[in-house]
Amino acid sequence: MNNSKAKQYKQAFVTHVDENRLMDCMRCGFCLPACPTYIHSDFDETQSPRGRIALMKAVRDGLVQWDGSIEEAFDLCLGCRACEPACPAGVQYGTLIEETREAILDVKAQSVKEKAIRKGAFDHLFADQRKMKTAVKLLTFYQQSGLQKVIRKVGFMELFPPFMKDMEKALPAPSKSEGIRLSKRVGTTKVAFFTGCLMDTMFQETNRHTIELLQYLGCEVVIPKGQQCCGALQGHSGEMERAKRNAEKNLNAFDVSSVDYIVNNAGGCGAFLYEYDRLVTSDSPYYEQAKAFVAKQIDITTLLVKLGIINELEGIEPSSEIVTYQDSCHLRNVNGVKAEPRAIVKALSGKYFIEMPSAHLCCGSAGIYNLLQPEMASTILRSKMEEIKGIKATTIVTTNPGCLLQMKVGVERAGLSKTSRAMHIVDFIHEKVYNKM
After folding, report:
1. Please, what's the b/e burial string for 131-165 (b: 16 or more CB within 10 A of its CB; e: otherwise)?
2. What average pLDDT values come out for the chain (437 residues) when binned by 10 residues?
3. How many whole angstroms separate alpha carbon 207 and alpha carbon 264?
4. Which residues lie closer than 8 Å to 159 by C-beta, 6 or more apart?
5. Cα torsion at 325, 352, 354, 208 (round to 10°)?
6. What is the DSSP letter of 361?
7. Tell me: the pLDDT tens digits for 339-377?
8. Which among 324, 401, 334 has a CA at the least distance from the CA of 370?
9. What is the dihedral of CA 244, 249, 250, 255, to 10 degrees?
10. Is 191 strand, coil or helix?
11. In the chain, how many H helices and how many E strands?
12. Rounded CA separation 237/216 (Å)
């Protein structure tokens, strides 16, 4: 790399990566056993949070020149943030990796293809819910028209990478009806529902079940118009300005003062929504609005427990299926929610619940990581499926659409589709309590 380019990377890191956050790291190593990429790279220090922070500092200080190995170290980070609860110094690693990716984006030349993909995804698909719904309608047509069967029969999918072939098999069935209709029920608790971009299109049935459960437990549910993708995919890809744009649209959409809670059913979305007051800086006209918005955020499992779902589940006879739970990384590591979903699943499964040994570690989905880094994602997923086989689980419950798709892919790859299934926790609850509702 020429000296001019090296200086550009150094300056970009000075501009975007906060040195005070870097200096919080004490190099103690408590993060190492919590990091999936460190574990699955034969304990390569450059694939650990501690190692990546050292590289950030070295690039920022001009002590190392940027090259492919440094870029790979940052690219291979899942962004799961499991290192944060393990860190005794409270290092804000999630913020540091986002700042790093923003710095890289400032300097690195993008190909025409990459520019087109980023613009299509972040300025259109994930910036306008109407376009997302149009895309999913095309996907529904592909599934329902017979085209999917033809494509598979002629072997066209063999032209795609293995992970995309498996993802195509794991796509959820099309929603049975168009749109979600709210009842006029007035409850003692009023909640605004953040529907999410994928959840409101590809997983619309889960959203419908979410609303039915909330209404069953006495909630008045409202769905604010004008809400957009939370911005997580943009933020995790270094596109912070685009993430802020989506955040501002969502802040405008929600009348925070009129509701008790803002509930979501996607762990990854919930974590990003929970940090809107960090995304929107203190000098922004949206800052106070963001703080009020964050204060009302709640995950669906936490709210269901607050509303008494555990008592409602008493008397439901558990089936003999062996059930396990895979954490949503961000729900666990950012929002700190790990007991509530387990309490619900245990209440429904009784003695048939078995904890997955590595449930607290990322499944390899991590937004679009499984598409960008298929080799590491597949390595992580294989280890998960070995555990599923070991405990003989027939139902894998999770709380995030990306995790759900990843588990479905894992089931297909491991040849377990006849004996095991993956489900969103809302659908699992709804299936069990449907006859009571």
Report:
1. ebeeebeebbeebeeeebeeeeeeeebeeeeebeb
2. 83 96 96 97 96 97 92 95 97 96 89 71 70 73 70 66 67 65 71 92 92 94 94 90 94 96 96 94 91 97 96 86 97 97 95 96 90 91 97 97 94 93 96 77
3. 9
4. none
5. 0
6. S
7. 999 999 999 999 999 999 999 999 999 888 888 898 999
8. 401
9. 130
10. strand
11. 25, 7
12. 38
State both tokens at 137: 């309608």
Contact status, residue 355 vs residue 324, Cβ threshold 8 Å:
yes
Tokens describing residue 390: 């070991």
Tell me the one-letter amino acid at 237: S
Please count the residues of the chain: 437
Q: What end-to-end distance do the CA atoms of the chain give, in Å?
A: 65
Neighbours of 22 (CB within 10 A): 19
Q: What is the pTM of this model?
A: 0.90
What is the CB neighbour count within 10 angstroms for residue 184? 5
pLDDT recorded at residue 371: 81
Distances (CA, A) of 376 to 310, 325, 362: 38, 22, 11
